[in-house]
Specification:
The protein contains nine helices and two strands, in the order αβαααβααααα. Strands 1-2 form a two-stranded parallel ribbon.
């Protein structure tokens, strides 16, 4: 359906037959990241207007599912992994290994396409940041966040997430 497909076209604009045909013709890759790390990243990039991480989290919780921001919406509500059969799920923090494998499976030369990743440093930094930011939250906020992201935590292996506890 190339005549109707532009970068701005939403999948929901197609009928079910067209959607099934399109999804069947693409290699579907889903990039996922621990929801708590997504919140930290969003806060650090200044996408929230809150002065502290705790107040930013409260704003997120108050807006809930009604928020239009994809920066902190649960992945399950954005990517519908129960409806779409993704060919690959790539976890943030393991990009070098997983993207290399993905390119190899696609028959592309691995080394010429991959930028330098610092996955180990990124994982350590986010682990430390997560610990610091998690301490700022009240017990109530921690429980509410775990509930808010419960489907993401159930759908993806975020075993080391602070929200999994």
């Amino acid at each position: 359906y190339p005549w109707r497909h532009t970068p701005e076209t939403q999948l929901s604009e197609f009928n079910l037959t067209e959607i099934e045909a399109m999804l069947g013709s693409y290699t579907k890759v889903l990039f996922v990241r621990d929801p708590f790390q997504r919140l930290i990243s969003t806060f650090m990039q200044g996408m929230g207007s809150s002065p502290s991480f705790s107040s930013f989290v409260q704003d997120v919780l108050d807006s809930g599912q009604h928020s239009t921001s994809v920066a902190w919406k649960p992945l399950v509500s954005l990517c519908h992994p129960c409806l779409i059969q993704y060919d690959y799920v790539v976890m943030f923090g393991f990009l070098r290994q997983e993207l290399g494998h993905l390119l190899q499976r696609a028959g592309l030369p691995v080394d010429s396409f991959l930028p330098e990743f610092t996955d180990t440093q990124v994982r350590w930094t986010y682990s430390w940041l997560s610990e610091q930011m998690f301490r700022e939250l009240s017990l109530q906020q921690k429980k509410q966040l775990s509930h808010f992201y419960r489907w993401d935590l159930a759908a993806f292996p975020f075993s080391s997430s602070f929200l999994s506890d």
